[in-house]
């Protein structure tokens, strides 16, 4: 129900109210806690000659000659050459036909956008015409609600005491040197300068991290006994022998550790880390098999539908022959199919259920869930995890991650988890050959790829997530798609996938690629994690410098799945920091390097989750902050002062209000 004061705010008709509500904003409080996803620095006009590719910049320019417009594969491409007193720059707009007229009529025009190196020239990629100057907050756009109106509403909210009420005891604020909340909120929405904004953001991350830590510590305390699974060493043997390959030493060791946990009454909480391709699935399936032969159910949750379906398909191959009845539940299912799934889960007909977080929706009841596995764990939040946990009496929890999180950080983030590492790859893997490719070699690379495609291979093209705006990400993928279609590669069948497409559209493109009907998949990084296409042997990463090393390493793990030679091409202009990738395939070493260079945050990728009350921060960004807050949270959980209790109750409220807490999306 919309808050009455908010509903009657100036400028809000029924349509806009609806749009806001759909975006989860139904009160001034919610509004003020919808933080910008990022900020644009439009405080100064940049000289064209000073701007380096990769930067975002505000320019004040004139149009040189006439702009041009063309249609390529149904998309309008507008181009112009712009200049200021220091030099020239190209600009290109995708799917914005109106820009042609704007440019043709403009005298001096202010544009803000990202500068890229294209065909050897500095190029503004789909810049926007801007009027406002300063440090500009950028919010997740809400269809039908003008930014100006949001801003006015934000101002009103800032003036309301109930919106800026303190959320931490004042003694704690001053002891930790935190900016008071009203000031912080005002800086976040209307920043005066960078330094103040940083302090404001720090205060907010401190607060959320504290709530999170306190909640996590308290969740752990309510631990009870779990199910003791009864299986024999022979069962483990049967499973291992059913696989078409011998487990590696590391897989064996970890599976034994898990078996030990499952046989004990203390519920397992184990994180299995292992480089991409090390074979975590075979280990997880082993655990699932043990749960099934002990007469219980197991669930395995994956972050995407594709990945969930792939697990399900593998399970049908690997587990069903052993007599384990498997099923799939995803959000995209039709009503009838879903009804059947719900039934099979509650009756225990399915012993192993694979799915997305549909597995933890409220209407899903398990017959006797004893094991919950989550794959690519860093994509899941605490609450999702506990919710899956709550489905059983107290299930054993196994989380699988390819992101090497240092043990200390894992302990801080997940509490008292046991960590197992699979530090060995199956034999016979050919390491992916990785090369840094400058733009001028693109043509030669395309020829090489084309040759591979003609021999029945497939290729991925990945664009970076530019920012927290799916439409901008979609644009960058579309523009790449457009340029591939203009190149000799258009001989192949090319599909495009990005976050703005409808799920069916995405599924269609992905499955065409998975089935080999399409040879090139162009995508943003949103969807790719974990898909397994053995004949894909080439991975091209555009603007590779925008990725973290660890993330690039994970990406290239998508190729080299078969026995063929495979390649990863990092498109970038003279970035030496990526060299380490051409020299080693050791994911842990790479993660270490990544940390040395960029700090923890980027281990998870630069895309910030915004999931913490819409705040654009990454919980893992600052390990110092995590350590400080962890110590404080422990003290608070053990303490009994009024302030301690106040923070505990605030944390409970905070956790209750969250749909979920996601550490970092990547
Ligand atoms: P990840 O750890 O990245 O999830 P997967 O579980 O998807 O890796 O395994 C990658 C590939 O390696 C799969 O095709 C799997 O069948 C294969 N595989 C796993 N373990 C072994 C092994 N011990 N020997 C040979 N191949 C294996
Ligand atoms: Mg996997």
Quote the CATH topology of the domain at 233-422. Answer: Rossmann fold
CATH class of the domain at 233-422: Alpha Beta
Task: Calculate the mean pLDDT score and round it.
Answer: 83
Identify the overall geometry.
globular
| Range of strand content | 15-25%
Number of β-strand runs: 20
Helix count, per DSSP?
Answer: 23
- Proportion of helical residues: 25-40%
In short:
The chain has 666 residues and is of the alpha/beta class. The protein is built from 23 helices and 20 strands.
For the structure shown, list the relevant keywords.
disordered C terminus; OB fold (Dihydrolipoamide Acetyltransferase, E2P); single chain; 666 residues; 23 helices; binds magnesium ion; binds adenosine-5'-diphosphate; 20% strand; six-stranded parallel sheet; Rossmann fold; alpha/beta; seven-stranded parallel sheet
Could you give the topology of this structure?
Layout: H1 4-7, H2 14-22, H3 28-32, E1 38-42, E2 56-72, E3 75-84, E4 87-94, H4 99-105, E5 108-118, E6 121-129, E7 134-138, H5 147-158, H6 170-175, H7 181-189, H8 194-221, H9 233-242, H10 249-262, E8 269-274, H11 280-293, E9 297-301, H12 305-318, E10 326-329, H13 335-347, E11 352-355, E12 369-375, H14 382-390, E13 396-401, H15 407-414, E14 418-422, E15 433-437, H16 442-454, E16 458-463, H17 470-485, E17 494-497, H18 503-514, E18 520-524, E19 536-541, H19 549-556, E20 567-571, H20 579-583, H21 587-598, H22 623-638, H23 642-657
Parallel strand pairs: 4-6, 8-13, 8-14, 9-11, 9-12, 10-11, 12-13, 15-20, 16-18, 16-19, 17-18, 19-20
Antiparallel strand pairs: 1-7, 2-3, 2-5, 3-4, 5-6
Helix pairs in contact: 7-8, 8-22, 8-23, 9-11, 10-11, 19-21, 22-23
The structure holds adenosine-5'-diphosphate and magnesium ion.
């Amino acid at each position: 129900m919309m808050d009455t004061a908010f509903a009657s705010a100036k400028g809000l008709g029924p349509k806009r109210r609806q749009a806001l509500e759909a975006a989860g904003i139904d009160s001034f409080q919610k509004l003020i806690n919808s933080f910008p996803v990022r900020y644009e620095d439009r405080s100064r006009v940049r000289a064209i000659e000073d701007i380096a590719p990769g930067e975002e910049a505000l320019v004040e320019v004139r149009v040189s000659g006439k702009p041009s417009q063309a249609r390529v594969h149904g998309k309008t491409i507008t181009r112009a050459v712009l200049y200021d007193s220091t030099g020239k720059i190209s600009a290109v707009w995708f799917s914005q036909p109106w820009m042609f007229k704007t440019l043709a009529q403009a005298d001096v025009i202010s544009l803000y956008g990202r500068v890229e190196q294209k065909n050897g020239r500095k190029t503004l990629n789909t810049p926007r015409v801007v009027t406002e100057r300063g440090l500009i907050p950028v919010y997740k756009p809400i269809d039908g609600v003008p930014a100006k109106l949001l801003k006015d509403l934000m101002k009103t909210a800032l003036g309301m005491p109930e919106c800026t009420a303190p959320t931490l005891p004042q003694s704690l604020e001053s002891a930790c040197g935190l900016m008071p909340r009203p000031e912080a909120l005002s800086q976040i929405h209307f920043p005066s300068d960078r330094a103040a904004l940083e302090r404001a953001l720090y205060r907010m991350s401190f607060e959320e991290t504290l709530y999170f830590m306190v909640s996590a510590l308290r969740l752990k305390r309510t631990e009870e006994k779990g199910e003791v699974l009864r299986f024999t060493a022979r069962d483990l043997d049967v499973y291992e022998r059913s696989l078409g390959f011998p487990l590696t030493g590391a897989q064996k060791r970890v599976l034994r550790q898990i078996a030990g946990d499952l046989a004990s009454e203390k519920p397992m909480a184990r994180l299995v880390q292992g480089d991409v391709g090390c074979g975590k699935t075979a280990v997880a399936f082993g655990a699932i098999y043990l749960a099934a032969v002990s007469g219980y159910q197991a669930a395995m949750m994956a972050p995407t539908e594709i990945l969930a379906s792939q697990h399900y398909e593998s399970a049908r191959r690997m587990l069903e022959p052993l007599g384990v009845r498997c099923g799939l539940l995803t959000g995209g299912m039709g009503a009838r199919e879903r009804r059947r799934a719900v039934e099979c889960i509650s009756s225990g007909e399915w012993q192993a259920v694979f799915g997305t977080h549909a597995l933890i929706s409220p209407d899903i009841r398990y017959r006797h869930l004893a094991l919950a596995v989550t794959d690519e764990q860093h994509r899941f939040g605490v609450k999702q995890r506990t919710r899956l946990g709550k489905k059983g009496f107290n299930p054993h929890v196994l989380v699988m991650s390819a992101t090497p999180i240092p043990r200390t950080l894992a302990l801080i983030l997940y509490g008292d988890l046991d960590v197992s590492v699979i530090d060995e790859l199956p034999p016979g893997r050919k390491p992916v050959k990785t090369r840094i490719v400058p733009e001028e070699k693109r043509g030669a690379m395309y020829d090489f790829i084309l040759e591979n495609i003609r021999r029945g291979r497939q290729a991925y093209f990945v664009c970076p997530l530019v920012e927290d705006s799916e439409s901008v990400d979609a644009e960058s993928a579309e523009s790449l798609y457009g340029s591939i279609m203009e190149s000799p590669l258009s001989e192949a069948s090319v599909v495009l996938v990005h976050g703005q497409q409808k799920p069916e559209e995405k599924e269609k493109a992905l499955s065409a690629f998975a089935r080999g009907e399409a040879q090139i998949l162009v995508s943003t990084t949103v969807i790719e994690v974990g898909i397994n296409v053995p004949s894909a042997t080439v991975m091209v990463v555009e603007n590779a410098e925008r990725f973290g090393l660890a993330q690039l390493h994970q990406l290239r793990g998508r190729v080299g799945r078969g026995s063929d030679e495979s390649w990863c091409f990092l498109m970038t202009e003279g970035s030496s920091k990526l060299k380490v990738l051409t020299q080693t395939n050791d994911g842990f070493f790479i993660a270490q390097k990544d940390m040395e260079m960029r700090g923890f945050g980027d281990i998870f990728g630069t895309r910030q989750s915004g999931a913490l009350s819409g705040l654009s921060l990454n919980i893992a960004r600052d390990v110092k902050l995590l350590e400080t807050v962890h110590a404080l949270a422990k003290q608070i959980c053990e303490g009994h002062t009024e302030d301690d209790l106040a923070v505990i109750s605030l944390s409970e409220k905070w956790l209750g209000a969250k749909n979920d807490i996601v550490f970092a999306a990547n």
